[in-house]
## 1
Amino acid sequence: MDKSCTLLVHYDKGTPAVAKEIKEALEGNDVEAKVDAMKKAVMLLLNGETIPQLFITIIRYVLPSEDHTIQKLLLLYLELIEKTDSRGKVLPEMILICQNLRNNLQHPNEYIRGVTLRFLCRLKETEIVEPLTPSVLQNLEHRHPFVRRNAILAVMSIYKLPNGDQLFVDAPEMIEKALSTEQDPSAKRNAFLMLFTCAEERAVNYLLSNVDKVSDWNESLQMVVLELIRSVCKTKPAEKGKYIKIIISLLSATSSAVIYECAGTLVSLSSAPTAIRAAANTYCQLLLSQSDNNVKLILLDRLSELKSLHRDIMVELIIDVLRALSSPNLDIRKKTLDIALDLITHHNINEVVQMLKKEVVKTQSGELEKNGEYRQMLIQAIHACAVKFPEVASTVVHLLMDFLGDSNVASALDVVAFVREIIETNPKLRVSIITRLLDTFYQIRAGKVCPCALWIIGEYCLSLSEVESGVATIKQCLGELPFYSVSEESEPTETSNKIQPTSSAMVSSRKPVILADGTYATQSAASETTFSTPTVVQGSVTSGNLRTLLLTGDFFLGAVVACTLTKLVLRLEEVQPSKTEVNKTVTQALLIMVSMLQLGQSPASPHPIDNDSYERIVLCIKLLCHRNAEMKKIWLESCRQSFVKMISEKQLTEMAELKAKTQTTNAQPDDLIDFFHLKSRKGMSQLELEDQVQDDLKRATGEFTKDENDGNKLNRILQLTGFSDPVYAEAYVTVHHYDIALEVTVINRTKETLQNMCLELATMGDLKLVERPQNYSLAPETSMQIKANIKVSSTETGVIFGNIVYETSNVMERNVVVLNDIHIDIMDYISPAVCSEAAFRTMWAEFEWENKVAVNTTIQNEREFLDHIIKSTNMKCLTAPSAIEGECGFLAANLYAKSVFGEDALVNVSIEKQTDGALSGYIRIRSKTQGIALSLGDKITLKQKGSS
Amino acid sequence: MVVLAASIVGKSGKVLVSRQYVDMSRIRIEGLLAAFPKLVGMGKQHTYIETENVRYVYQPIEVLFLLLVTTKQSNILEDLDTLRMLSKLVPEYSMSLDEEGINRAAFELIFAFDEVISLGHKESVTVAQVKQYCEMESHEEKLHKLVMQSKINDTKDVMKRKANEIDKSKIEKTRGDKGGLSSMSSLSSGFNDMSISHGRGSSFGSGSMLGMMSDVEPISTKAKDRSRSSVTAPPKSSGMKLGKSGKNQLMESLKAEGEHIIEDVKPTSQTRAAVAPPTDPFTLTVEEKLNVALRRDGGISSFDMQGTLSLQILNQDDGFVQVQIETGGNPEILFKTHPNINRELFNSESILGLKRPDQPFPTGQGGDGVGLLRWRMQRADESMVPLTINCWPSVSGNETYVSIEYEASSMFDLTNVIISVPLPALRDAPMVKQCDGDWRYDSRSSVLEWSILLIDNSNRSGSMEFVVPPVDSSVFFPISVQFAATSTYSGLKVTGMIPLRGGGGATPRFVQRTQLIAQDYQVV
């Protein structure tokens, strides 16, 4: 592993500190100047400028200083300085430091002693530590707890060094003794920690002999106790019984941190229902008692882990989990609902729905911001419940229908979609829903909710009375006909002239948008369907809601009204025996349709009716005038059937997803089965039993290296120089998350020794070299490995170039071999990801950088081209496969990926098949930063030609 | 439960300060910190981020982020505590909460962070403690320096005296006496020692300072000649070999030369101050004397506290007064007034006045003044005793280990505590293994004196351990104890003087002394 780094300090390169100045200041008597100079020396050291002559100056002039700050800075300096030579031997100068450290360990100032002991914790060189051990031991009995605390830690770190146990043969014994008399909580904790890491049995003994007192111990000590228990039980599961009692007693500790830890320990130790229940209960209690959002979220994470492992137990606690909904934070509420939804069973569904209903009602009363979003979440949750357990639908649907008129469009949309699904799946509820819907229809204000509600009315009004009241409701909502009067018409000529240009300007200035089906459009067919964030709808209640919407120019709605009326009339024909009544209704419907057309063509509307709506309304008029059986069938039955098909398809995909989910968790037929008991007895491999915590730490510090395929490794070798060059070099590039490791093999092909050979690298793009290059000498015809680390800070194509410089003995000039460039591929940094369509579209609207690449390819098939792009850019296609099925000569799809730095990359592909068979169109890339858009564009340009 | 690093980064991702608590490579930590600003979402109501491998817990401070990098298993509650603590510290050390301010205070911040997190574990400290730790003001170091200074002065004195001797011996030499040789040799050795003491100055242990302190006791008046027979305590920490021997050598050789070493800093005796002639018109003295015998195995054998209130009036003219007092209301204490005092007045209003108001209180400088009130308390349980001593001799092999501990009640702050333990007649001083406070051995009376200057809340209990040759454990009793305190059992206070004549209403000035003295305090 690389050298560890203990501190980072920002260093401004703008003010270069000259070694000479530092030296002078260090030699002087001015304490302030000395402190400054020491700080500079440390910063230089951090930046890789080891000024070796400074060391002696520091030894001579800084070491004897009495000033405390200087002494502390000196310790930092010593911490950073290279203490060994290239072969790992301790430098002889270091013995000078030893003397100083020893004096510090016996300093009358307890704090000097303390910080010196702390410094010893970070020392790795046994040779330096060795002469200091007696002084360290003395400090174990120092009067001041500050010194004892650090002395114990120092003993622990030294003991852990290689051969450290020989330096302190009886360290555990001594610490155990100290532990028994120690009063200071912190020192006591450290002592116990030392025993825990160095002599586990002693720690266990101490713990077991003090079982009764554990609950009175200090919080920090209790934490270590829990850690100990976890680790002991991992290695000796048989002794678990002894500790469970301790954990249970600690569950009632005063510190919430301890309680949290207890619950975690309990889960890791036992899968007995009681233990899990206790842990889950604890988490739930903490969830209620802790006010910090971070804590709540992490607790919810823990609960959802528990849920996936022990669902049956968590089911009992669902109501407790749901109490977390009282937090105003949306993230917390969302997580809570997610957990709860997975825990619903036949037994608790009623309770849960009760609770959710209560929450919904609450959102109505309080005027908190984000109430709307929360309500939307709740409605979705209730929807999900009702889908799973249709019997509850009846209890909630009426409550939810109150929200059809919600000012939050999104939640109203959810409600209406819910109602639509329920009315189909629960035929029993149909009558009551329709009645209710007709009653509340006038409250619906949103232009996007109305069409759906109208569709329901059109489809499910079956009986005579329903149909009649349906027509009446629509009529009522449209208000008095015609939509505008002549008196209104006389003046608008001017106003409309004013309005016209502004609205057209608005349309033309609108940014290109991505439609729901993935097509890329500069102007949408119905301007109301622009996908904006939920808007609040305003409108007076006095005039009918449909009328208001129509007058603002929503002609799509007009078309829907027309269709609904047509359907109602056709149905009326079936149920109404009296012919005159039917004809009466037909004429009314025709009047409405004609009025709408009139409005659409009059200057009173903000913009003229679009062709699509116009055609539709005209179609309805034609149909009403010439009614025939075939048409009737299509209108009254086929529509319904396609909806039924859609719902069943949706259920099918859900089922498939569920299946896929359950399948992944199952073991493969030929997987190895681990018998835990056999394993531990055999003592097969300690590695496999190794502590989860340790793994966690290793992963965090980057020590975890995955074994990679050797074949894979060979694929990525780059030749850097030619075979006939005096120096042959090739590099193996490993791309980690945030860094690139270059492993360069250098071979001396000459018969001479290469001296001062140096691999000089430079970078372009967002790359940074971490270390300065070092000089080597290379014997004739030998090879060596040089490692270089390069830091990457954003997703961008980067180039590393450089050369190898060396000297030979007979020619006293430097030779240079230029290396091939190494291109760092952006594809290493992005990975396919998924986001919702809405999120995609908002990001598309927000992001500033767009790169437009014209399609130029030899591929003839649209699908094939899309697959090729997906493969070569390593992205995920968001557009559903069903949407791009079939041969129509057009294709539009959205691709999405995320970089390791969390940046989003959006791609839209829109292609069209020309008459000559070639594909044309554009690929647009959008991202927040320029780097991604550019490099992804380059990549696509390069690759789009096709496999050829 | 492991904090990997505590860092401060700018909004743009510039790493200003970072302190790592576990081993990790530079590229790793830089990578983690560089990734952080990109992960921070806007408008989130929580301040932690989990990635595949680590968790960031952060807190925005104006234009900066203070963040902890922890493992994913880490205890969030504790980490938040730590973060809160650090966020309190940052403004303490950084003048301005921007990049420049942090840069300037980078090292101070690192030092402060080190106090809060040790090896990745949280320390339970407060802001005040961290500040104290970082300031590194050590009382012991100051004392050490003082002692060093006085040592140097002493040695200079010795040098002067030596110089005089040389002069004298020169004169003698001129008289043709041969005896000068020996004095020359002793002289040279004296100089050697001195030079050692200068050269190894820094190696005097703190124990030597304690040794000095023991001479500051108020009883030094009675023992002018004792210093020769008594052995000062050797340094408690055994220090570096050279330093220790150097110091002993110095002391030893100085003693061998027959020098009387006065290491005393001027003793400021309290008793003398009390005796000093009063200058105020009225002096009221509340004094309680304790006669207590404690049993060695716990419990009280006898307890007797006697208190007096006496009044001393300087001028004859001022004699017409009454004294308003206030008692602590301890029901165990019975007050008795002087026969001449008006008892009813005292019982009803707690005013001490003469039965015949036309007579003045006797006046005069001598003595302790006139006793007005006496009280005593004879019943007390163990919790009422100001100081309990627990002495455990135990014989093992051919040694007797004696460990003594004291425990002081929180009612009193005791000063000048001396615990005298009788020992069997020994030639050498006993081997003291451990001692809170300091000790001296008086070989003439075979008494080990353990003295503690002040017992207050910081050291309500303490212990000493020493080893002597095997003896019967009864030898170590009775242990007698001396101490003084400024608060009393009765809590009696003089709240005012009421002049009876020439009243302008102005309350006359008066001085009040209160003390509790252990007269005969023994463990039998």
## 2
Amino acid sequence: MCASGKYNSRGPALIPRMKIKHRIYYITLFSVVLLGLVATGMFQFWPHSIESTADWTLDKRSIHDAPLIRLPVSSPIPERGDLSCRMHTCFDVYRCGYNPKNRIKVYIYPLQRFADELGVPISSTGLSREYNDLLSAISDSDFYTDDVTRACLFIPSIDVLNQNSLRIRETAQALAMLPRWDKGMNHLLFNMLPGGPPDYNTALDVPRDRALLAGGGFSTWTYRQGYDISIPVYSPLSADVELPERQPGPRRYFILSSQTAIHREYRAELERLKEENGEALLLLDKCSNLSQGAASARKRCYKGQVYDYPQILQESSFCVVLRGARLGQATLSDVLQAGCVPVILADSYILPFSEVLDWKRASVVIPEEKLSEMYTILKSIPHRQVEEMQRQARWFWDAYFSSMKAVGLTTLQIINDRIYPYAARTYEQWNNPPVVKWSSVNSPLFLPLIPPRAPGFTAVVLTYDRVESLFRVITEISKVPSLAKLLVVTPRKKFKCPECTAIDGLSLDQTHMVERSECINKFASVFGTMPLKVVEHRADPVLYKDDFPEKLKSFPNIGSL
Amino acid sequence: MQAKKRYLIVLSAGACLALLFCLGGVRLPAAGRRSRHDRSRRSDQPWPHYSDPLHRFQPWDREDTEEFNLHTSPRQKKEANTSAYRGRRCRMDSCFDFSACHRNGFKVYVYPPQKGEKISESYQNILSSIEGSRFYTADPGQACLFVLSLDTLDRDQLSPQYVHNLKTKVQNLPLWNDGRNHLIFNLYSGTWPDYTEDLGFDIGQAMLAKASISADNFRPNFDVSIPLFSKEHPRTGGERGFLKYNSIPPFRKYMLVFKGKRYLTGIGSDTRNALYHVHNAEDVVLLTTCKHGKDWQKHKDARCDKDNAEYDKYDYKEMLHNSTFCLVPRGRRLGSFRFLEALQAACVPVVLSNGWELPFSEIIDWNRATVIGDERLLLQIPTTVRSIHPDKILSLRQQTQFLWEAYFSSVEKIVLTTLEIIQDRVLEHGSRSSLMWNSHPGGLFALPQYSAYQGDFPFYYATLGIKPYPKFTAVIHAVSPLVSQSQPILKLLVAVARSQYCAQILVLWNCDKPLPAKQRWPATSVPVIVIEGENKVMSSRFVPYETIVTDAVLSLDEDTVLSTTEVDFAFTVWQSFPERIVGYPARSHFWDSNKERWGYTSKWTNDYSMVLTGAAFFHRYYHHLYTNYLPTTLKSMVDQLANCEDILMNFLVSAVTKLPPIKVTQKKQYKETMMGQSSRASRWADPDHFAQRQTCMNKFASWFGGMPLIHSQMRLDPVLFKDQVSILRKKYRDIERL
């Protein structure tokens, strides 16, 4: 830009006076500049081919290339999670600061492998496929930053999804060794299976200072409201099995129980319900004749009859989700995917993403001690509501449960909403499925207000070049007592039907009507729906055309034209 | 000269070249940061997409089943929880006994006042609101929730209202039971200098309904955060919000205002002391005064004189009404009066009170009505509020008004909201959804006992994108015996049954004579169900009969004269306004300034505020509301007079919708028939009847705490009604034929 500017302003005047040698010199010089420009442009807009090869080589990268860190025995251990932590006490908001996009920046620690002094790794599984998916999704999202100094939230690459595979003390030491750990401030851990036998704590047992916990089995006693995030227990079946969305409506079974790890007392209770209600209730358990393994996760049995799981979930209106040893159950995810309404019996359980999701629209929560009344309670729910819940359940799965990416980004969005509450997603955005988003009407003026007469109204008169009829309108309208202001708008366009009279307006012009029909179709296609509604009524004054003395009527002249 | 020029050109061109490469070089990584693909190319920092065969996450523990089955039974575990989680860790699961509530419903008992105990006016208002509510029971054996008669509102030891020896007094209550199922109201706790949230007595397992409660002390889904309200807060009714109309664009004279005390030292002083940094004396006006208490001059700082002078220049009321946002910083305690003041004034509160559990946070989505700031980011507040889009401001402002009128404008509303929240926890699967709490008409008017499904209510069709059921049920109120085949009720029945939208007809037999034989009723294409009214009283016409399955109810007097066309038309109108009463005969109210009371008129006037339920469509939910929401006193008054049930229904619907009913066209003979030829002329001819209706109006207005009726000047007629076009082109032509 700089070069061409020079050329334009001075070049043409100079060149004729210059010697050939100089001219060639200048031409070469500008050509080089031009070439440089073109090359820069090429490089900017055509980087993908260069890059994909680079990507390809990088995809070959293995977790075994990650540096191995040995933890000294005496390495410091963080404190246990502080139950009184809240965003205003344990979270450093200055790191997030004011941000015109109202979006937090998230940093992911590069992968390291941790082991104790003897070389035994801190985790029996290392990085799981699911946690890798989660971190990939975050690194591909708009939340991600690779600049650790600009980050508001830090995510360790240490996989703590499943506590069973962790060595608690060593994992804690590894966390404390992270370069920006700083008492866990602004660090986020993802855990889906907390606790272990025999007590099964409802939050991750790894000491973690002030770190935020996105946990998959919180009870009301371990969940720090407004600080922690309750997340679902991801079901790997989601990735393996495709269950097409089914239309809401009555299904073959009324209630289905498909969990295998049900406490024997509860199973006895369910058997009793089954005896009372027969066919309406399908009670499945694991198949005794099948060997344990991945295949067994996909089969369920009832008296020797084998059913495909999770497909069978789609045959039922309600599906029982009972607490096991843990409160959070992966079954919930399968059930939602099948568009089956979850019946949740897990006292004190904090439902996934309950901070933003309205579970009353997608589930039925029943206290455990009322398991025996489950049938009666569910029968009392109107059909229309059941259908809406089925649709809502599936939508929750699609939007928030279906992949590790969905779980991860939803968690970040919830934290984002807390930090920028004035830019938070609304209830409707979180909870309305697309079909409702299209069909619902949310008026920007939703408060029932009957405005006072005093401020009057402003008349806006659109005029073409027909001064006479404009004056007529102005004279008439200025007689109105409530008129506060009159605004005349003159577009450049000519009035298109010169032969039309004032009363007929343009309605006689056939092409005009055709044009307007086209407009309507165009608008409807852009809106994606026809927003206009047809009504058969019209507002008139109360005594309009009634057999009543005209002088006693408020608006006697209406309809006199 | 030439050489100089040449050198200049060469130099500048060279510079340009250098700049270009420089720019190009800089832009490359910048672009890389923007493009996601570029990132993974950059070596060590970002997350590489590892493609190793990784372990899979296994949420199903194989050992789980056996292990878990060996372990304690769920019931034992629950009991263990109950004893472990007490005091500050109380939750409904551990510190509340549901059994009484499930047995007798949600009933609230108030201890009788103790001799010699003074009760503050505010606490008296709370107690009488409970006693006047439908939850009240005088029998502690029936109660699910207990409320003390000892005044616990003010627990500031320095306050004159402070009740001494509360600890002993509470322990001595025979029903105390370590506070189980008790609800304790509190507005102020702690005192100078630290203002802790300690109440000065052991509340045991009792729930707290407390103002200014911090998230630290708040036990989620157990305590209820209530707003701080003043002694002057009205018991019932309450003032309306100040917003009279929406202005677009929504900006007011000031962007952000505050006027209040500054404490100089001690707890809660930091934010207020720093406000002057943000004050710009133009559209951000934040004023503080150091004057408070006797010895303020002792702590006086360098800014005090200047601040105090500035403080006196502005009028608080004027600022409140003319500002888009109102700052609500914490005071000594977390909550302040500013919050409700701003809410009522439609001045969007900007809350700066870290850790404050906002009022009714369990059910109210405050992001819809306030801006929740962070005290640590005070200096960013002006930028933040300026960045809020005008559409959002418009919506925030309207929501302040909705919330104020739905939950805060009177002590009664605050108390009822508290009780309803607790009731929702007890009901669990049948409780209100967030949508019901946060949209018009609010949770106090949307009773979950009617249905937990929003689509069953008249208020949420548009939000959910659904429509009411396209048929109606006619309910005919019969009071005179069937003697001849030409009786109006039979004509009416036939006319209504002929409507294409009629699903069924319900004849409510409120006549002393026995039910007529089945064959006496005319044969119709829709089912006619005859039921005997409960006790044959007036209110029985609004009982939510289970036989009514349609959303719309057409309520009819037995002597109403209507044609099928009129019914059809009115029903199509109702489908557009399912939350309102849509009908024919209209009446009006007026303020009689001589008698200082409300008057009732049946004259033909240019406006109306009631549509009589002798011929009107409304949503069946109003049957439920009439029967279950209104107090027995009003319903029995209606029953005793055998009058005013229609006025009461109009009061109720207008109180809920804040809108007038809708009158539709009718043939003009209706009135004459009703007044003259009716078989049951007595009711309307009786001069007492009219006087009674005046009395009713005033009784109702006092219970509602104001006049909910609203006038309308509009009548809905069919399009083309009495227009000069061929009658054959008109769909509802019978309406204009006489």
## 3
Amino acid sequence: MGMAAAEWKFHVLAVDDSLVDRKLIERLLQKSSCQVTTVDSGYKALEFLGLRQGIESNDPTALSTSPQEVEVNLIITDYCMPGMTGYDLLKKLKESSVFKNIPVVIMSSENVPARISRCLEEGAEEFFLKPVRLADLNKLKPHMMRTKLKNQKLEEIENGTEAVEPEIKGSEDMGIKILPLQSELEPKQVHLQVVKQEEETLSNNKRKSMEEGLSTDRPLPRLEGGIATAV
Amino acid sequence: MDSLAAQLQMQYRNYILSLYQQGFLDDQFTELKSLQDDGSPDFVAEVLSLFFDDCVKLVGNMARALDQTGTVDFSQVGASVHQLKDSSSSVGAKRVKGLCITFKELCEAKNYEGCVRCLQQVDIEYKTLKAKLLDMFMFEKQIVQAGGIIPQVDIN
């Protein structure tokens, strides 16, 4: 499968109850060359993600090809929202075996240090003070690139079209140990080894969850009449 | 260059500068303008339109919350003030935002008279800003019609 230009466009899910702010974040993200989906609540965000998951697990033939279309590379959410706050949404995402690897960014109009550290501790990648600027979004590219590359690797593993990686190959050529000692590898190679193992586990979990419609950890939101039931 | 267009451009520049100098707008408005391009030529107008819709809605909410015979739910008023502060901050409506900050403190202090006065000021302020920005858009239209391009105004 060739790499189409569209596949490299990051898809961001933006969550904010304010219409003005949704409009603004949408433009900022478009200006940063991202594909954007906006929703006005945490519930709708989960529904959007759950809906996509529902499509994947119901259609086994779409196993490897659809992830590109449904892939969300980053979620950016407002903190203060009625019902489910941005923090609540963050928690739910991090508790989910399927969604916990999607980077989450929190936005808030209030500079409350305790709030900021709580969000970062819960796993948010960044915390932006509103109004968010274009310069802030430039910090997000590395996070999105990481998940994008990870998902691409997953696909290659599943398709059996895994590309040869020079660094790993080089270490195998040393011949004596199957898994070279960490001290013998450059830090970058170690990272790739760890990532590769992580991805294989993820890939196994993903395959299992797709075939059985079950999560390895906890039940995924199931669709009942188009509404995802809460986890 | 057409002298009418040049005149209009100069007037436009001065007008924009005065809006910043008088504190109607801040640098977030500059950011909004920078996000507008050929692909999204009406972005600023669209966002401002949403903002003014918000103003109408939220000021209405605040008025209703304050118009209670008996106990006023200041947290309800405060919630609307918070939303308006957020929106005004996002579009660079500096005076409206400043009033919202004051308003929030008055809600927290449960100062009824203060809140009512502040609400009146917010109402006047957003309407004043709306009129000013409509004039700005009118200027832009006139410049284009006179064959000129809308100048980028450097406020620094």
